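Thread amino acids onto this structure.
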């Protein structure tokens, strides 16, 4: 095989694990966000067993943007991330690069939300922390794929 053919095979092989992991992480974030969205619209309280403050965080003025709960926006973002990671799993590097851009934006936004919880609202929501962890893990997976794909 030519050098170009070998490079294409190496790129596919090095990228193969990352989209699968990213899709699983995206599913965790998607389920978490959908759960919070359902709780928001049903008006039911969210049970917090690990930390105190879920209701404080979820009913704060920061929990919505223009009347739309952040959880619903998160569900849309995680669905997009899941879709991009599945498409990237089939070898499309453009979708993987788009996921990389999205994961940076999601991680930065999540860090800002953690800041809001800790320093502005003064309470933490375990489900919000799961979502933030998913966003940061998604970015970390993308970043790790960049370092492990080089030979």
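Threaded sequence (151 positions):
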């Amino acid at each position: 095989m030519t050098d170009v053919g070998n490079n294409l095979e190496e790129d596919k092989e090095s990228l193969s694990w990352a989209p699968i992991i990213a899709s699983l992480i995206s599913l965790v974030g998607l389920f978490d966000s959908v759960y919070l969205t359902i709780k928001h619209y049903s008006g039911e309280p969210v049970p917090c067993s690990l930390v105190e403050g879920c209701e404080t965080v979820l009913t704060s003025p920061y929990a919505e943007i223009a009347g739309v709960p952040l959880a619903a926006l998160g569900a849309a973002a995680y669905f997009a991330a899941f879709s991009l990671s599945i498409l990237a799993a089939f070898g499309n590097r453009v979708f993987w690069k788009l996921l990389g851009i999205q994961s940076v934006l999601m991680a930065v936004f999540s860090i800002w939300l953690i800041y809001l919880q800790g320093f502005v609202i003064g309470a933490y929501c375990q489900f919000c922390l799961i979502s933030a962890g998913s966003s940061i893990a998604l970015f970390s997976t993308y970043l790790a794929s960049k370092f492990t794909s080089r030979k």
